[in-house]
From TrEMBL:
Assigned keywords, A-Z: Signal
Record's protein name: LTXXQ domain protein
Signal peptide (from-to): 1-20
Region (Disordered): 30-49, 80-144
Lineage: superkingdom: Bacteria
Bias-annotated ranges (Basic and acidic residues): 80-102, 112-144
Entries under InterPro entries matching the protein: Cpx_auxiliary_protein
């Protein structure tokens, strides 16, 4: 189940990216604000556990909104050219943009929040490595 969810999310993301790339930039929804971002009543937002101040939530929301807009622009610029080399360039550019935003978010946090943020990033990286290893194992066993 743990390995199935990222695959399902990735599969669901592809049509979303296509729709987002064809969307007019004036139709963009505003970024999340307030309690939704750090969990709200369910406590499961993308920055849960950081106890952001209202100013931090606003700044993080703005950064995340800018990142989404930049990602749409990047995807739109590459959608029509999806051979392997362009696909790699797309992923590299999106990864760089995401890393830049994460660094900006981290800079907004207090030291104790930065420590928790770093722990969350480490867990995310570990899950990504595990997923990559699984995909490699699956590829190796598929060819056998």
């Amino acid at each position: 189940m743990r390995k199935l969810m990222p695959a399902v999310l990735f599969a669901a993301l592809l049509p979303t990216l296509t729709l987002a790339a064809t969307q007019d930039s004036t139709d963009i929804t505003p970024p999340l604000h307030g309690k939704l971002m750090d969990g709200g009543p369910r406590g499961d937002g993308p920055l849960r556990g950081l106890k952001l101040t209202p100013e931090q939530r606003e700044q993080v929301g703005k950064l995340m909104g800018e990142e989404r807009q930049q990602q749409r622009e990047i995807v739109k610029s590459y959608l029509d050219k999806l051979p392997e080399d362009q696909r790699k360039a797309l992923h590299d550019q999106l990864d760089g943009n995401r890393d830049k935003t994460r660094q900006s978010i981290r800079a907004l946090l207090k030291p104790d929040q930065q420590k928790r943020f770093d722990e969350m990033e480490k867990k995310r990286e570990d899950r990504a490595k595990e997923w990559a290893e699984f995909q490699q194992w699956k590829q190796d066993h598929k060819s056998s």
